[in-house]
Amino acid sequence: MKILIVDDETPIREWIQFSIERGGNPEFEIAAVAESGNEGFDMALKHQPDVVITDIKMPGMDGIELMKKVLEVSPYTNFVILTNYAEFSYAREAVTYGAKKYLLKSELRGRDILSTLEEIYGEIQEKAGNKEKDCYSNGYLDIFDCYYNLDNKEFLEDFWKRHGFRPGELFLVTAFEQRDGVRQKEVMDRLVGERKIHAIGPALKNRSIYLIFQAGSGEELTEAAEWFSEGCRRENLGLMVSGHMGKGLASIMEAIEEAEKMLRYTFLLDTGYLRIEDAMELLPLDRASIKKNCQKILAGILYEGEEVIQEALVQWFQSLHGAPFADIQWVKEMCIQLVIRIEEICAAHIPDFSEEHHQDMDWTLKVCGGLCRNLVNRIYSEDNFRYSQSVRDAIRYIHNNYNRDISLNEVAQYIYRSPEYLSRLFKSETGEKFSSYLMSYRLNKARDMLINTDMKIYEIAYAVGYTTPSYFSKMYRDFMGVGPEVTRSQRNTGGARGMKADS
């Protein structure tokens, strides 16, 4: 099993390498060691490792971006993420994208590294030993060997010949993402029946099954796929996607990979049948508008009424349903980030709140929407949400006027309260001084502008209510830990990920 180590800290790289070598497992080979995400990606392409151990926060390409890029070209690569406590939300995010496990740097021990690698190695061996398991009436093949022998023409020809593939006949590859694994075998046997269908999978990284239909004409293939899909829909088993038709062995693996990519629609659709032709006709999303509405939701959670926020959430998630293929990954990232940001707001304002850990979460649009609505309900519950109308009005005024020089006196006058009274009330309910809250809100807005716009730094300073750019830079550095120029430089590298809370 080939291993790639990627970390910008020399002591960490050396410790991991030493721990693996000292473990003495002859099956573990350190293929390469890289000092950055960019170098790690190059090494991954060159050595095709089975496992990549990578830091999550690195200059340039970070660990999440590295993982996504590698999985696009090598979908069976396993990832282990290294993180710190402060980066836990990123680690959770990495797991949702396919990371096998994350390890805390502060608690990194040699035996933890070895046990993680042994677990992954065991899974790989189990899959490899399961190549031709007789699961369905027409047989059940594992695509694992094919994936690693794409350049071996003789192997591929023999593999497909042994399993009844007819090279001179049209074929259609569809992918099936199951939802009910308990009834899967029973239902698949019943639906397949006597039809000539090659069932392939599940692949290493998911629960997908690939079905290869063969027939003399495209009409026959379409009819067979739709018939099978209707049966899956009746049984409420999951989503079936269909790619292009082809002929011959040369294009079969490409067709399987196309069907694999189409399964990204499982994030949007729980069940049903989707053809690639239909997916390609979908209009692109208005990303800027969706992102703006997302920020409005986050900014309004603490002062808008619950009904307003819940309705905004429903409309926001509904706007994502018709996403074309090119937008699906972006939609998933936005949804997961929204869940994480609302969780962080809960943690800040609900004393007994404990973060949900979604390592095993089967993320879908429906799941993300349900989590967000439940979290907002907790924020507004009678026991946890105690902001008075005066404080809500003050917060609303800050959010609407942060871009100019406002003061406690001005806000107090607006809500018909004395400055002294508002100051005491604001601190007692929010846990922050009025001035601290205003500064935090302004600087978080500035951070969003640095990441998402091309405005110059001095323009951003004026836009968030600072009259002196140098003073803005000092306050930003003190609050964020890095200067605005650093945040700006990270914009296109993946180093500044996520959405900062507007609170």
Intertermini distance: 47 Å
Beta-strand segment tally? 11
CATH classification class of the largest domain: Alpha Beta
> How much beta, percentage-wise?
5-15%
Alpha plus pi helix count: 22
Q: If you consult CATH, what is the topology of the largest domain? A: Alpha-Beta Plaits
Largest sheet: 6 strands, mixed
| Overall helicity | 40-55%
Strand order of the largest sheet: 6-8-9-7-10-11
CATH architectural designation of the largest domain? 2-Layer Sandwich
Instruction: Report the uncertain regions.
Output: 130-142, 202-206, 494-503
Q: Mind telling me the C-alpha Rg? A: 26 Å
Q: Can you put this structure into words, describing what you see?
A:
With 503 residues, the chain is α/β, with parallel strands linked by helices. It is built from 22 helices and 11 strands. The chain has 4 domains: 127 residues, Response regulator (Rossmann fold, 3-Layer(aba) Sandwich), CATH 3.40.50.2300; 141 residues, 2-Layer Sandwich (Alpha-Beta Plaits); 94 residues, no CATH class; 102 residues, Arc Repressor Mutant, subunit A (Orthogonal Bundle), CATH 1.10.10.60. It has a 6-stranded mixed β-sheet with strand order 6-8-9-7-10-11. A 5-stranded parallel β-sheet has the order 2-1-3-4-5, with helices on both faces. It is globular and about 85 Å long. 32% of the residues are buried. The C terminus is likely disordered.
